[in-house]
Amino acid sequence: MEIDIKFDPAEVFDDISQYLEGLELSGGWEITYIQSGDITKQRYDLDNNLIYSAETLISKSPEDIAEVILDLDSRKKWDFYLEKYEKLQSWGKNLQLIHIEQKYKWPMSNRDFVLVQGISHEPGEKILIGWKSIDYENKPPTNSCVRGIISYSGFIITKVSETISHVTYIEKSDPAGSIPTSLIKILQRRTLNTIISLKEFMK
């Protein structure tokens, strides 16, 4: 049974896709890592919070890559941060409300997020998969996790040739709670680790 919601999921996803596509084309990025075609970048948003981006080339089609990201059984094999996943509501194949829990290393507690997840297609050319945190009173925080906020995150998968796709992952988030300064750089590497794990899985 669907529960009444206080937001328009289609409008939320439009906001996600416009934000991510705008960032992909924007300047002001500082490259923080580059090796063997894997690149990480960061830049400040208008609110002075950092946005992280990682990109690489994968020898698969956009459709094949998107399937591995969206299929839960596949994702568990490469996304080592994913602890739990639950679909809360669905508005067709390409728009859902989900709850996820992500693993964080000690001394940090795991974080959980309630997210609108959407997918858009430019057939044969580009696929965008995006997420954004949303207030949803039917899935309140619990004592087992810290409720984090993903302002925007997502994959932009663009066809380069018949056998190669360019994959960009962008994230602007607030894991919330108390985070030791010594762990900040480790958290920054999660963006790179996510895309490298995906690339290795698809070889």
UniProtKB/TrEMBL annotation:
A Pfam family per the record: START
Domain of life: Eukaryota
InterPro entries: START-like_dom_sf, START_lipid-bd_dom, START_lipid_transfer
GO cellular component, one term: cytoplasm
Domain START span(s) in chain numbering: 28-185
SUPFAM superfamilies according to UniProt: Bet v1-like (SSF55961)
PROSITE patterns in alphabetical order: START (PS50848)
Molecular function terms, GO-annotated: lipid binding
CDD domains hit by this protein: START
UniProt-recorded name of the protein: START domain-containing protein
